[in-house]
Amino acid sequence: MAIYMALLRGINVGGNNKIKMAELKTMFEGLGLDKVRTYIQSGNVLFVSDEESDPLRIRLENAIEKTFGFRIRVILRKQTDIDRIIARLPFSEDEIRAAAEASPGKEVLYVAMLEELPKPEAIARLGTYEKDKYHVEGLEIYQLFHQSILDSKLSVNLQKLGVAMTVRNWKTMNKLAELCKEIESEAP
Predict the structure, then answer these.
(1) How far apart are CA 115 and CA 77, in angstroms?
(2) In terms of residue numbers, what domain contains 164?
(3) Is the separation of the CB atoms in 148 and 57 below 8 Å?
(4) Which of 58, 94, 132, 139 has a 20 to 30 A CA-CA distance from 73?
């Protein structure tokens, strides 16, 4: 059994693809998944399953389409993946502090989680940015913004990699790790 996170892409954004978290939780439970929890409205669902990732992802995407009437991508990560992502943060405290000072009151640290590896030439096209930094590590792209993510060319260009992905801020990543530990500590 593994603790999974289903990270739904593009729900409850700008009034589109609306899904209530209580209904999403009920759908996951109806699929026979255990210890289901949701976190905030952007589509983070934690649960326990013994299924393999790829067939599970497809099953979830199909169930969401059947239940809510639209198709979205689901990016799956296990608890071990989230722990690894947090442990391998490539930016120093000084770099993060400088970004936060340049953009007070805004989130500056994000992780894009990809469904598959992008082609090397697509990564090379990302280039460099005056205000923003990124680091590609496997299926994740760490991003550090010195401005709003909404104003970032890096953020726009990530979509040009040609692979399905979803982005979460660092606070969300840490909260997901914390929720995984809570699920792990619960009696079977």
Answers:
(1) 10
(2) 87-169
(3) no
(4) 132
Count of structural domains, the chain: 2
Pair of tokens at residue 101? 């000072």
What are the tokens at 102?
A: 């340049």
- Asked whether residue 154 falls in the same domain as residue 98, the answer is yes
- Domain harbouring 105, CATH code: 3.30.70
- 72 and 11 in a single domain? The answer is yes
Beta-strand pair 109-114/165-169:
antiparallel
Name the amino acid, one letter, at 69.
Answer: G
Query: In the structure encoding, which two tokens stand for residue 140, read together?
Result: 């994740």
Position 96: which residue type?
A: I
Phi-psi region of 105 (alpha: psi -120 to 50; beta: other; left: phi over 0): left
Where is 2: in which H helix or E strand? strand 2-8
Q: What is the pLDDT of residue 14?
A: 66
CA distance 121 to 70: 32
pLDDT tens readout for residues 51-88:
999 999 999 999 999 999 999 999 999 999 999 999 99
